[in-house]
Structure formats: C-alpha cells, structure tokens
Design brief:
The chain has about 400 residues and is of the alpha+beta class. It contains ten helices and nine strands. It folds into three domains: about 15-130, Butyryl-Coa Dehydrogenase, subunit A, domain 1, CATH 1.10.540.10; about 135-230, Beta Barrel (Butyryl-CoA Dehydrogenase, subunit A, domain 2); about 240-385, Up-down Bundle (Butyryl-CoA Dehydrogenase, subunit A, domain 3), CATH 1.20.140.10. Helix 6 runs antiparallel to helix 7, helix 6 (about 240-275) runs antiparallel to helix 9 and helix 8 packs antiparallel against helix 9 (about 355-365).
C-alpha cells in the first residue's frame, strides 16, 4: 500500500506535536485569514490601507494580549498558541501580524509586566477588546539599534512628568489612543502611558512606503507633553524594560515569517503544477523541484526552531539569544523564499494578484525591525565567544 503523501507545508508533521488547544487556535485563526483577510489584503496593500474593519473580529477571537491572564479580559493562552496566531496572521500579511504584535507584546505586555494593578485593570480589558489601540515609542530618528543613546527625556514637575522628544517607525502610531513611550529620566530610562490626545503629542503617518503598506507606520513628536506620575510604569527602570518587551515581540516574529513563507510556497506549488512550458508542467522541471525542495527544507527547520522556542518560553526557560537565533534564521528563510517564489512566477509575480511580491516587500521590514539580521548575528556571536562586538 502506498504511503500517504506528506503535507507539503508541514513535512515533519509539526502539527502533531501541538496540543488540542493549540491546534484549535491555529485552525480558528487560519479560517479567519482564509475567509476575511486573503480576499481583501492585496487591495489593502495596493491602497496603502490598514484594514481597520478586521479589528473587531481579531479582538473577538482573543488574539490581542493572548497570553495575558483571563483576569484582565485576555485569553490566557500558551506561548506556542501565541506563536501560531502570529504564523497564521502573517500568512495573511505581515502588516496584520505587526498590528497584533505591537498591541500584544509591546503595549499590553509592558502594562501587564511593569504596570500597576490600577493600570492593568484600566487598560488591558479594553485593549483586549480592541476598544483601545496602542503603539510603542522606543526607536528614534537618529538610530534604532542603539536604544541606550535615547534623546527623548522626561523631567519631573511636581506630581507630573514633562516629556520631550521624537520617535520614528512606530507601528499603529496614527491608530493609537495610547502610546507606551520610553524616555530618559534622572533615574534611568522609564516608560510612560501617554494618551495620544494629550496636548503636545503629535503622530504623523509615514507615506511612500514600499513595505508594510497594509500597516500604519508613524513618527511621534512630544513637545512638553505632560502626564501624571500615575501614568508612569512603576515596576521597571533602565533598558531592561523596553528590551524585555522586544524579546516578547521578537518571539512572535520568529513564527510570523513561517506563515509568509508557507503562503508563497503553496502558491508556487499550485502555479507550477498548472503552468505548461515546453510541453510539460513547470513542476516537472528538475530546477523547479530543487528550488521547491530547498524551500520545504528551510520552512521545516524554521517550524522546529520556533516550536522548541515556544516550549522553552512556556517552561520559563527561554533566553534572548535563542530568540535572536530564531528571528535571524526564520526571517532570512522567509525573505529568500518569497524572492525565489517571485522569480518562479515570472512576470506574473510582480503583481499583488499573487502573494510573493507582497510578502517579499513586507519581509524587508520584518528582517529589519526588532533588531536587524546583523544585530541578531552579533547577539549569537557574543553568546559563543563572551565578547561584545557591537
């Protein structure tokens, strides 16, 4: 009896290693992406429009702040479930996953991890419901890879803080009702919850993007922005705060590009089976099969990396270097596959009627943000040698 064919997008049956709950989460998000995201996302990318109409359903599925306890109106899922959410959302589009990553890992997480109980109860349930959208103000115009060189500062004035500075490349900036802004103080770097309607706060959307077009990216300007001390995140000081948030976000980003790569591979498998050149399907060409096999090998490696990373996270044993290794590997894997798939599609591959060019362009941002590829290589190098080469 012939053996059953393997799933071309999951050659090692990684799905069998998931719990019933994790499979249920993946299936629910996958259906949402298939039914609601894929029919509109090409046009949204063309129009440089974030599909805000999807936010209520994203929230109703429990995808915002998914790992935060149910006490705060969140789903209380495992880290692996959150990774699968990122994988399926990015199978739709990196911009959609970016929206959920920022809301969950960069705004809700610091409020949960570093905030007061009053701040948690005030913001987290409304953020989980999609009623409040947040953004994360860390990167500054003069450079993103060196957050210790932060220019934004906050000075105490009575019971208030007065914040001045600018932030750049801020996802959700013009969608947000609150910003978690990191600023230098006399007592080290601290985080502040800043309502975006505060006097002196301005968000300016960045246009002319060729990547993450279905996402809102902004510059933030803070001109004598005054917030009460009750808006300061009280339980962290120093770079540990923002870097802890970035570790959470990078974890999700290790999963997201797997979805983008799977979308590209599926498309070219279908395309090469139907496209006939020189009297036979393109898929019968040895060069094509070698390329497809290499894509499957790299996707499988990435799946196993992220799954083990998720198990370490859920065991409380995940280390930042491990996140860097997976972020570096999986983003490189996905961007290479997206570009290769674009090539296989020929001229047709340059239009957004196919997914490869959109994913390839988006992944130019994903491989850059939350630490460039070079930064993550150096993080791993530092772990191996004990020498900081930054």
């Amino acid at each position: 009896m012939a053996a059953a064919r393997l799933n071309p997008l999951d050659l090692y049956d990684v799905r069998s290693l998931l719990s019933d709950e994790e499979r249920m989460v993946q299936d629910a998000v996958g259906r949402f992406v298939d039914e609601k995201v894929l029919p509109i996302i090409g046009d949204a990318f063309d129009q440089a429009r974030f599909p805000t109409e999807l936010i209520p359903e994203i929230a109703s599925l429990g995808l915002l702040g998914a790992t935060i306890p149910e006490k705060y109106g969140c789903a209380g899922m495992s880290g692996v479930s959150y990774g699968l959410i990122c994988q399926e959302l990015e199978r739709g589009d990196s911009g959609l996953r970016s929206f959920a990553s920022v809301q969950s890992s960069l705004v809700m997480y610091p409020i949960y991890a570093y905030g007061s109980e009053e701040q948690r109860m005030e913001y987290l349930p409304k953020m989980a419901a999609g009623e409040i959208i947040g953004c994360f103000g860390l990167t500054e115009p003069h450079g993103g890879s060196d957050p210790a060189n932060m220019k934004t500062h906050a000075k105490k004035d009575g019971g208030d803080w007065v914040i001045n500075g600018a932030k750049m490349w801020i996802t959700n900036g013009n969608l947000a009702q609150i910003a978690v802004v990191w600023a230098q103080t006399e007592d080290g770097i601290q985080g502040f919850i800043v309502p975006t309607d505060t006097k002196g706060f301005t968000a300016q959307q960045i246009h002319k993007k060729m990547s993450l077009r279905a996402s809102v990216t902004s510059a933030l300007f803070l001109d004598n922005v005054r917030v009460p001390d009750a808006n300061r995140l009280p339980n962290v000081k120093g770079l540990k705060g923002p870097l802890g948030c970035l570790t959470q976000a990078r974890y999700g980003i290790t999963w997201g590009p797997i979805g983008a790569a799977q979308a590209c591979l599926k498309e070219v498998i279908d395309y090469t089976a139907e496209r006939v050149l020189f009297g036979r399907p393109l898929a019968a060409n040895q060069a094509i099969q070698l390329k497809l096999a290499d894509m499957a090998r790299r996707i499988t490696t990435a799946q196993l990396l992220s799954l083990q990373l998720g198990r370490l996270k859920d065991a409380g044993a995940m280390q930042p270097t491990q996140v860097s290794l997976a972020k570096w590997n999986n983003c490189r894997m996905a961007i290479d596959i997206a570009r290769q798939c674009r090539d296989i599609l020929g001229g047709a591959g340059i239009t957004t009627e196919h997914t490869a060019i959109r994913h390839a362009l988006n992944l130019e941002s994903v491989i850059t943000y939350e630490g460039t590829e070079t930064v993550h290589e150096l993080v791993v190098g530092r772990e191996l040698t004990g020498i900081n080469a930054f």
